[in-house]
Amino acid sequence: MASVFDVAQYILEKNGEMTAMKLQKLVYYSQAWNIAWTDNALFPERIEAWADGPVCPELFQLHKHSFKLAKLSKGSASRLSGQDKKTIDKVIAFYGDKSPQWLSDLTHMEAPWRDARGALPARMRSQREITPKSMGEYYASL
Prior knowledge:
The protein has 142 residues and is mostly helical. The protein contains seven helices and four strands; from the N terminus they run H-E-H-E-E-H-E-H-H-H-H.
């Protein structure tokens, strides 16, 4: 199985430089739609319901001092299968031209993030997981 770093590296190679926030949201949607379409996760790392939307903490640790990213120091797109790339390509085609804030706002309207956050105040930090099950159920229903 690929890692979140492999997926993020592929997104950067395909879509070019972007903010860390946008990369996090594209990684999230790649994971969510892959689960919905194939019943399998793209990567094993967890995604958490942070205040600004879904975030993979391991990916965050790699880029936490960078606002914009063009390449990561970790990960290789060559570890992705053809099916993995097909899913990510569809995600990029649909979400890739959207702004980071638009993507964040969209995640805030969707059940996986909202349910994981529960009744937490809007700006409160959280390490609550957005589970693969919640992603699969929600996105498969759309």
